[in-house]
Amino acid sequence: MSTEALPASLQVFRLPDLGEGLTEAELVNWLVKEGDEVRVDQPVAEVETAKAVVEVPCPYAGTIAVLHGAAGETLEVGAPLISVRAAGAPAAEEPAVQPPAAGAAPRVDPVAGTSAGPEAETYRNEERAGISTAAAAAAAPEPEQGSGNVLIGYGTPGGSTGKRTRARRTAGASPRPATQATPGPAAPAPTSGRSAVQAVRCISPLVRRMALEGGLVLRELTGSGPDGLILRRDVEAALAGRGTGNLAALDRERPAMERPAVEAPTAEQPASGTDQRSGLAVLERIPLRGMRRTIADTLSRSRREIPEATVWVDVDATALLDLRASLKSEGGAPGLLAFIARFVVAGLAKYPELNTRVLTGEDGSQELLTVEGINLGVAAQTDRGLVVPSIRRADLLNARALDAEIRRLTEAARAGKATPAELTSGTFTLNNYGVFGVDGSAAIINHPESAILGVGRIIDRPWVVDGALAVRKVTELTLTFDHRVCDGGTAGGFLRFVADAMENPARLLADL
């Protein structure tokens, strides 16, 4: 069914902001098909966000009329996801919106949102679960059967009926103009200029971040989107031109027939089947999207912004292995990573600078943010890429409790069930790359954190003990830290503290 002539009885559920501040998500799989009956809060689709695959529940009950998109497509937040026909509504009726009369202003598509940029962006701000097309035109309250849930675990409280997340307009406020049935004079076309009292017309966090990182002032840019909305391409053009004008100005200088529908391939990605750099045949082009793009963005930003330094030390872990073996023989013991995690938490309490992070304001000013408590991130390799779920308030847990959380979070991450909060709230990261059979690594800090501690494999090595050579269980600890938050003395002190704890665990555990 075309989205340009949807009946008024259809309720349109738009892709919500999945609680992560994202602007888009990839549609992985449909859990329903057109014609299926759906109940309130029934999962209808699986989408992949920055770090996980999540199920999206529908806030309406009825019959699935339209699935807006196919598996593998990337949908923007606020774009239509499904249209639902309420129970008892006719299967077909006249379109709710008639073609415009001659001379009338261009019609705004309430579903596709192609000509209603501000409305679509308002939707994204309000994080609504969806509205019917008729309700959108008349600014009526949401249907009673809407649940308000936008994601499992991120819905409205029990008993909610899909109210807006912001306060409703008062009686004296001006309502949103409704679509008129009688033809009238065309509304003046929106202009791209902005007065001094207007807010910057940029809603995307990604665009704002790109401008901030590039040293651009958004208020000085002219957007090429609807009503002057600043888009990603405007920032990219400004960064590339630096004074030559934005993409909209450049585009206006060319005839319409010469404007490409898509970006022209660059030298590194020619339109032909041969890679110009290597001269080899191109086998495949895989877009960086979803989790892979998020990982790439995070690591690139880390290397770009953080002046990192690395220190490392070899550690005799024989005593720690002996302690664990003793506890295991008595009926159970935490894993080695849990013990190391407990030592890390104790070390961060002594050297709290490594648990801080640097904040940069829009004006370029910087400040050091210190928080109460430690959310310890534990790097986990999954089929979809590397993720870092965090143990909230790890400083309040003992080794056994840390072991239970590490196992739970690792399992959830590999199953794609870790929550956005668990994947984005860490303050320090512990990375056990020894499971891959390597000794050390100059790891990249998980931006915006300030440090990451890596643990290599534990192997037999010759070691001097009391003046004599012995075979000991040795591993390597590597600490990469942000040199803005501390100097080498702090980093070295922390690393030595953790190493000493591993070499003589009984002494430290007795004091914890």
Task: Explain the overall architecture.
25% of the residues lie in helices and 20% in strands. The protein contains twelve helices and 20 strands. It has helices spanning 117-126, 133-138, 205-213, 232-241, 247-252, 290-305, 318-329, 336-350, 399-414, 420-424, 488-503, 505-511, and strands at 10-14, 24-30, 37-38, 43-48, 53-57, 62-67, 74-76, 80-85, 131-132, 308-316, 357-360, 366-369, 376-378, 380-382, 385-387, 390-391, 428-432, 451-455, 459-465, 468-482. A hairpin with a 5-residue loop joins strand 11 and strand 12 (366-369). Helix 8 packs across helix 9 (399-414). The protein starts with 9 loop residues before the first strand and ends with a helix. The model is unreliable at 93-120, 122-197 and 243-271 (pLDDT under 50).
User: Total strand count, please?
Assistant: 20
Q: Which runs of at least 5 residues are low in confidence (pLDDT < 50)? A: 93-120, 122-197, 243-271
What is the makeup of the main sheet? 7 strands, mixed
- By DSSP (H or I, 4+ residues per run), the number of helices equals 12
Give descriptors for this structure.
single chain; 512 residues; alpha+beta; seven-stranded mixed beta sheet; 12 helices; globular
SSE layout and pairing:
Elements lengths: L9 E5 L9 E7 L6 E2 L4 E6 L4 E5 L4 E6 L6 E3 L3 E6 L31 H10 L4 E2 H6 L66 H9 L18 H10 L5 H6 L37 H16 L2 E9 L1 H12 L6 H15 L6 E4 L5 E4 L6 E3 L1 E3 L2 E3 L2 E2 L7 H16 L5 H5 L3 E5 L18 E5 L3 E7 L2 E15 L5 H16 L1 H7 L1
Parallel strand pairs: 13-17, 17-18
Antiparallel strand pairs: 1-8, 1-9, 2-4, 2-7, 3-6, 4-5, 6-8, 10-20, 11-12, 13-16, 14-15, 18-20, 19-20
